[in-house]
Amino acid sequence: MAGSQVTPPVPPDSADRGVSWWHRGGWLLLALGALLAGLLMAGCSSGEEAQAHVTINMLDDFFGRDLTRVPIDTSVRFVNDGRNPHNAVDAKGAWKTPVDMKRGDAKLVRFSQPGVYRFYCTFHGTANGKGMAATLVVGNAYYNPAEQATGKTLAPVAQASGQVQRVPQQHRTIQAAVNASQPGDLVLISPGVYREEVKVAIPSLVLRGTDRNAVVIDAEFKRPNAISITADGVAVENLTARNGLTNGVFWTGVKGYRASYVTAHANKEYGVYAFDSVDGVFEHSYASASADSGFYIGQCNPCRAVITDVVAENNALGYSGTNASGELYIVRSTWRRNWAGIVPNTLDTELLPPFREVTIVGNLVEGNGNPEAPGKGIQWGAFGNGVVLAGGNDSVVERNRIVDHPLHGILITPNLDRRFWMSSGNRVRGNVIRGSGRADLALSAPAGNGNCFQGNDVRSSAPPGLQALHSCDGLRLPLGMDLSTMALSLGRVAETHHEDYPKHRPEDAPAPPPQPQLPGGASAPVRPAMDVFTRFSMNLASIPVPANPDGHSATIRKEPTVSGVPILAASPWQLVFALYGYLLPFVLYAAWTSLAFWDLARRDDLGRGATLAWVAVVLLVPFLGVIGYHVLGRSKLPGWLRAAVVGGGVAAYLVILAIGALLGGIA
After folding, report:
1. 416: which strand partners?
2. Is 325 exposed, middle or buried (0-12, 13-18, 19+ CB in 10 A)?
3. What is the pLDDT of residues 314-357, one digit of tens each?
4. N or C: which end of the chain has fewer CB atoms below 10 A?
């Protein structure tokens, strides 16, 4: 035809190498890769905010700790948790936070030089240490609490001095007796209610009540602690500490501590608490109505500590231990009717993350999931579980009896703070678990390598077959973990953000029943808390599974679930994240797979071998295999359809999940 122009044909391989790769879906592959990279970068934040730091809380009107010790180049986060405005100002003017910090405001201050920094709040304290004031020791700077309190350099001693300071016979208050003491003395307290905060800066004292139930140190919800200890080697025995604005009995920055036959009740943070301290024992003690945890050991490695023969009930958490690692043993104790039982965890708000090498053996853990116990939002995520390993490594949970929990008997899970901490290398063996509403054993995804489960007497797990998939001595598959558990946890985080959890106050909790007395009472041997870990005798191998108390049988029945989601027991936020966040990816996967098989069935450009190869890729490589086919397999489906189903499905899922995260306060 006149005027027509013939265009030479383009060889197929030339077209494939040119524009068609992009139109076949190469752009989709790049977009998905960019999206994944963005998510990874968002989840792995860098800089000062992402690093572990020490938090010092500002409350009304005191700092959370009188003494804090940190290494050089540590960031300290001052956060106002009180209702009043506060600040922190160095007494010598070297540094300060903003002057008018409102509730929830926080400021990071980095300390690069060793030294002793005394600081105060200009609203409620003075530069000479009166009122709201505290001390920060950076690096190896010399600081002796006894010297500050008495003007004398007093060293710890291992033996009793033979001297007794009697209250009220010789000293009207316990504090007066402490101030008059020398290392190794016994402060012996007769029955009575002592309305004071006892601050112990003299080492190697033994504070002992003559009657555990009748000697009461009452902070009256006016003072930070019933007993606050900054000296090494101090033991507290045979008394009750109650009604602290933060803690019952509190050791901070010490070597050598012991609580024996102590009752801690109705304290707004912790019952019996050791922070940044090593070489200690909590024994024969009782804690109830703590809004954080009954017993707490935090920020130590190695801790060289033992918790044994204690009872924790009606607390938010029975035991909590943030970033507490190494030679830490929780044994032969009872944890019942708390929000959750035993919860070692990793957070960026304290130094030394992650926690590792915690040994939990021979405990009775029952009925945790008590909504009537006092608690706060940060603990709500653990509600309904017996033992939770949250973001830690290389710990052991063996020969415990765990009964009646709305969610899980034992849960290994990651933990999200400023960084995302996965759990790895944990061993769960020989436990007896009954009456778990969701699963007796659970391994939440994502998880690190090396978690194993073996020889546990259980009836359910999440995922199913957990002991077969993650045996300690045999088969261990890298993908044998449960995503729906993480989805439920995200629902708990959203509930916390919206304060959708029970709110009960420690001061409204019932008084504890009478507790056993210290054998020997006032005449018992006086033992300062020196080398207590080395002297403590314990044969782990001989500790059995605890007996079933009074023939108690499980009362909680397994909840009906849909793909691991307990429909009847789940809250609206849990349903949002579990049903949508967990199930929708599988719906998309099923749709993508169906389209891929339908397309393969009608293609005549592939031989039998190539078709079978793509079928194997789609079936054997979850998610990525079917996406790879739609992007790279030269599908006959229109490019716009594949883009809408694959790329659009992923984008819509992430957008809606992001909206849920924003509304739930997770993002």
Report:
1. 420
2. buried
3. 999 999 999 999 999 999 999 999 999 999 999 999 999 999 99
4. N
Count other C-beta atoms under 10 Å from residue 371's C-beta: 12
pLDDT reported for residue 555: 79
The region that residue 237 occupies, defined by phi over 0 for left and psi between -120 and 50 for alpha, beta otherwise, is beta
3-state SS assignment for residue 120? strand
Q: Is the peptide bond before 302 cis (omega within 30 degrees of 0)?
A: yes
Q: Which domains does the chain have, with CATH numbers?
A: 21-43+571-664 (no CATH), 52-143 (2.60.40.420)
Q: What angle do CA 192, 198, 199 make, to 5 degrees?
A: 165
What predicted TM-score, i.e. pTM, was given to this entire model? 0.86
Q: Does residue 475 sit in helix, strand or coil?
A: coil
Nearest Cα to Cα of residue 431 among 497, 369, 512, 365:
365
Beta-carbon contacts of residue 509 (< 8 Å; ≥ 6 apart): 265, 266, 288, 289, 314, 373, 374
CA 62 vs CA 104, 122, 125, 472, 506: distances in Å: 16, 12, 9, 49, 20
126 backbone dihedrals φ, ψ, rounded to 5°: -135, 160
Q: Supply 38's token pair.
A: 């963005």
Residue 105 tokens read as: 């405001």
Q: How far is residue 266's CA from residue 381's CA, in Å, rounded to a whole number?
A: 22
C-beta atoms surrounding 467 within 10 Å: 20
Residue pair 68/136 in contact (Cβ under 8 Å)? The answer is yes
How do residues 45-56 score in pLDDT, each as one tens digit? 333 344 679 999
Report which DSSP code applies to 512.
Answer: P
Distance CA 169, CA 424 (A): 56
| Three-state helix/strand/coil letters over 189-234 | ECCEEECCCEEECCCCCEEEECCCCCEEEECCCCCCEEEEECCCCE
Cα distances from 137 to residues 117, 453, 490, 574, in angstroms, run 6, 43, 38, 44
Contact 244, 199 (CB under 8 A): no
